[in-house]
């Protein structure tokens, strides 16, 4: 638990939807989870079911802004999805905040990792270590060509872009807290200063 009361309330509600015996197992596969409620937020990590709290509105809005920016010039052969389950292998299922998939896969879930050309994670207090290290390793090993991390917890909202090299390792392409232009998977512009201003206004409004 992160200590955030909103995340803790969400986690308590999620626990009521799951057979507690599943949470004790360390040998689960993706096939064991097919009957879980569709609205349950979870990830499967090395055979272990991990419940994830619903994101706060700022997190959700940043994911939406990324989707909107990407949709503007989206080529017709591609499709976008948010909070999308992705099968990495039989014992691992992740849930990136945004993914790019082929248009032909737009009616399927979970998505197979070989169909994901970009995974985007927006960092939250409970996911900071996983997004920057564990998911970074998992997505590279699974062969996802592009990985973006957006960090609204930094002093200024920060964008970091990685691309998979020929050795199967992610290499840093750019990191910025300014208005940024990205060329892959297609031309996209993200207005990070606007997101920073919005976050700061939310913090000011949340003061007692």
Automatic annotation (TrEMBL):
Ranges in coiled-coil conformation: none
Cited InterPro entries: Nuclease_put_TT1808, Restrct_endonuc-II-like, Uma2
Recorded GO MF terms: endonuclease activity
One Pfam family cited in the UniProt record for this chain: Uma2
Keywords: Endonuclease, Hydrolase, Nuclease
Keyword Nuclease: yes
Protein name (record): Endonuclease, Uma2 family (Restriction endonuclease fold)
